[in-house]
Amino acid sequence: MMQMTGAELIVRLLERQGIRTIAGIPGGAILPLYDALSGSESIRHVLARHEQGAGFMAQGMARVSGRPEVCFASSGPGATNLVTAIADARLDSIPMVAITGQVPLSMIGTDAFQEVDIYGMTVPITKHNFLVRSAIELLEVIPQAFHIAISGRPGPVLVDVPKDVQNQMVCFEDFPEPAVSAAAPALDMAAIEEAARMIDAAERPALYLGGGVVHSGAAQQAVALAEQAGLPTTMTLMALGAMPIDHPLSIGMLGMHGARYTNFVLEESDLLICVGARFDDRAIGKAVQFCPKAKIIHIDIDPSELHKIKAAHVAINGDVAAVLEALLPRVKVKLRKRWLSHVESLKSRFPMQMPGRDDPRTHYGLVHAVAAALDDEAVITSDVGQHQMWVAQAFPFRRPRQWLTSGGLGTMGFGVPVALGAALAAPDRTVVCFTGDGSFKMNIQELATLAEEGLNVKIVLMNNNSLGLVYQQQSLFYGKRVFASKYRGEPDFLKIAEGFGIAAVDLDAAANPRATLAQALQTPGPCLIHVSINREEFVFPMVPPGAANTEMIGG
Amino acid sequence: MIEQVAEPLQQSGFAKVVLELEVNNHPGVMSHICNLFARRAFNVEGILCMPMSDTSKSRIWLLVFDDQRLEQMVLQVEKLVDVLSVRRHGAEHEVFDRLERFFH
Ligand SMILES: Cc1ncc(C[n+]2csc(CCOP(=O)(O)OP(=O)(O)O)c2C)c(N)n1
């Protein structure tokens, strides 16, 4: 018979689940849990400076490792501060378990100090959530939370634990087994055979990879399929790295800021094989005009994604790695010389243009210079805005989980705490965060956490002293009525970094920016690398909002 | 920028469907289900929920219109962890008819 408090039980269950690092911030309603955590020998706590930072650190750990990770917050404002990071994890299918303190059960519903209904608030942004009503329930709830977070399509789960439940004594015989993920759906062999026949019969097939390929660890199978069947392969923002960008079959990222030729190849395709992607509007533009000539094979672990935006001719519900594995031996080897040489000609006629790529003080040049100073082991994170798109367009991603970005929610403030999480989970890797001055200020407080942990995180700040992507939209689509997108003040980011105890270099002032950059990236420990970027540089090419992917402007 | 805003979908022209859900019986289940319909502006015409003989479970009856979003709606309901099964019946199902006398 074992006896312990609910709080101790949570800590033991997290230890048994293999959790080694938890990011969070304490407060009254979660103090029993923090007290129990202080006694843990295997779990290390990282004290964030804002709960959103803690949520994104957990995400960074999960995005790098593929494992579910944990964050803690107190009740009320602590819990509400987590909301954005949870919603972000939901939209990008990231496995995460958020544990929040709650006011004691007897006070729930009384508007007690720091009481909010975080359970109610997180219903639409979690895969599932729990309000724990007695300590004994934790024996089921904690393993189930992990099981749900990692099974099928991954996602965030919230567990709200009232303070008295944390303090309640429980007696029980045995610990439950740590959670494992549910078995994948059975393979639909008839559909897989049909898909193989369609691939063999197609003249101009294209492969369209989404984040599901990364989550499922199916990059190798996806590349093998492309090579075997001669498939030009496009990736969504979430899938960059699934196929190395310099692979001869890669046609890069599709959609709003993809290269023109990529969208043209898809336009001409007669078969689209969509693997672990969800026909997001930023990727496909106007849905009715996307791949108008193509039949569609759609493979996804989430049945509700099939036929959601585009009706599929063959829809296969399953783990994409397992489905591709079964598909491979059934697909004929094809060279597809005609189609692939046509793809090449589209590529040379409508290539991705990257002006300034040799000058490390321009946007594309900077991204290239950073890439040149790193190897493929580095992890790259981004914030949200123009800089994010420039990195997506220009950085040579070559492996899955190399690129961590906020795709579905597009959350400014994502980059720095996710980089910290990545560095916590993968301390041997260099982690580089590309950020903009607007996004940087949204979680800038985590510089304190970064300095304290001394992580190997380099922040490349592309400073245009504006909300660049907003400025771009107003300039292009709102008659140049620029409003609320240019900053009037101009903080000294170098001093700010130094104030937090973080080394900083300014490429603007460097005599040899390439050398200064390489040196900063190669010196272990945190560093801010500042570069001014011309505000008049826009992300091109671009599909205007509401247009079809083939109606691009610029570039 | 001028955008075409879609007219709210007129549901009344569509046939009615009765959905029968078997769910776990604990506080919060109804909010998970109602939330799904509410945020998609999918009107639930009728709703009835009672514990089953095994009181750890409840049966929920929903009366909805069979518009083109119903398919996706059902798939989303099936994804909820506390929803154990979803069955579809035609409008001729008597559960809501029998309740009529409490309302009219
Ligand atoms: C939290 C949040 N608020 C607002 C937005 C809308 N938004 C998208 S990009 C952007 C500007 C980003 O500016 P910055 O980080 O400086 O990057 P830049 O576009 O200049 O490279 C804004 C305000 C957002 N994506 N996230």
TrEMBL record, chain A:
Cofactor: Mg(2+); thiamine diphosphate
PROSITE patterns: TPP_ENZYMES (PS00187)
Catalyzed reactions: 2 pyruvate + H(+) = (2S)-2-acetolactate + CO2
Pathway(s) per entry: Amino-acid biosynthesis; L-isoleucine biosynthesis; L-isoleucine from 2-oxobutanoate: step 1/4; Amino-acid biosynthesis; L-valine biosynthesis; L-valine from pyruvate: step 1/4
Gene3D superfamilies: 3.40.50.970, TPP-binding domain
Domain Thiamine pyrophosphate enzyme N-terminal TPP-binding: 4-120
Statement: the UniProt record of this protein carries the keyword Metal-binding: yes
UniProt keywords, alphabetically: Amino-acid biosynthesis, Branched-chain amino acid biosynthesis, Magnesium, Metal-binding, Thiamine pyrophosphate, Transferase
Every Thiamine pyrophosphate enzyme central domain range: 192-327
Cofactor: binding comment: Binds 1 Mg(2+) ion per subunit. Binds 1 thiamine pyrophosphate per subunit.
Entry coiled-coil feature ranges: none
Pfam families: TPP_enzyme_C, TPP_enzyme_M, TPP_enzyme_N
SUPFAM superfamilies membership: DHS-like NAD/FAD-binding domain (SSF52467), Thiamin diphosphate-binding fold (THDP-binding) (SSF52518)
EC number: 2.2.1.6
Residue span(s) of domain Thiamine pyrophosphate enzyme TPP-binding: 383-531
NCBIfam families: acolac_lg, PRK08155.1
PANTHER family noted in UniProt: ACETOLACTATE SYNTHASE ISOZYME 1 LARGE SUBUNIT, THIAMINE PYROPHOSPHATE ENZYMES
Family: Belongs to the TPP enzyme family.
Name assigned to this protein: Acetolactate synthase
From TrEMBL, chain B:
GO terms assigned for molecular function: acetolactate synthase activity
Family matches, as InterPro entries: Acetalactate_synth_ssu (IPR004789), ACT-like_dom_sf (IPR045865), ACT_dom (IPR002912), AHAS_ACT (IPR039557), AHAS_small-like_ACT (IPR054480)
Catalytic activity: 2 pyruvate + H(+) = (2S)-2-acetolactate + CO2
Leading EC class: transferase
Domain ACT: 18-91
Alphabetical keyword list: Amino-acid biosynthesis, Branched-chain amino acid biosynthesis, Transferase
Keyword Amino-acid biosynthesis: yes
EC number: 2.2.1.6
Record keyword Secreted present: no
UniProt pathway: Amino-acid biosynthesis; L-valine biosynthesis; L-valine from pyruvate: step 1/4; Amino-acid biosynthesis; L-isoleucine biosynthesis; L-isoleucine from 2-oxobutanoate: step 1/4
Subunit structure: Dimer of large and small chains.
PANTHER family hit by this protein: ACETOLACTATE SYNTHASE ISOZYME 1 SMALL SUBUNIT, ACETOLACTATE SYNTHASE SMALL SUBUNIT
Similarity comment: family membership: Belongs to the acetolactate synthase small subunit family.
Name of the protein: acetolactate synthase
